[in-house]
Automatic annotation (TrEMBL):
Region (Disordered): 97-118
Pfam family name, one: HTH_20
Origin superkingdom: Archaea
Source species: Haloterrigena salina JCM 13891
InterPro entries in UniProt: WH-like_DNA-bd_sf (IPR036388), WH_DNA-bd_sf (IPR036390)
Protein name: ArsR family transcriptional regulator
Length: 118
């Protein structure tokens, strides 16, 4: 995992903080440590599917969640599979603007976790 202080714009920080501030966003990120569909996330954290899709879109736009591909659902439909892009985020409010530090997930960690899950 790499840890980095965000060098992004104030808009990036605002998008991240806004996405994290919405109800269920943190729960979705916690549940998305392994690849999951919106339906699986909705069921895991017991939220309406429409709400889950809205939060997923916000988290993807903020760069906190990524679509890892598509797979067939039990009903035979192609569905997107999501996984979080980081394991930790710290917010420092001691400056004029919030400063974010993130521990990004590495592809090696994702592959190892996938192998342990199978």
């Amino acid at each position: 995992m790499s840890q980095s202080r965000t060098d992004g714009t104030e808009a990036d920080s605002s998008a991240i903080l806004s996405a994290l501030g919405n109800k269920y966003s943190a729960e979705i990120l916690c549940a998305a440590g392994t690849p999951k569909s919106a339906q699986a996330l909705s069921e895991d954290i017991e939220i309406p599917i429409a709400t889950c899709y809205r939060r997923i879109e916000e988290l993807v736009n903020a760069g906190l969640l990524t679509c890892e591909g598509r797979q067939l659902s039990e009903e035979g439909r192609r569905t997107n599979i999501y996984r979080r892009t980081l394991d930790e985020i710290d917010v420092d409010f001691s400056k004029d603007r919030p400063q974010l530090s993130q521990k990004r997930r590495t592809e090696a960690k994702n592959r190892l976790q996938d192998q342990l899950r199978d």
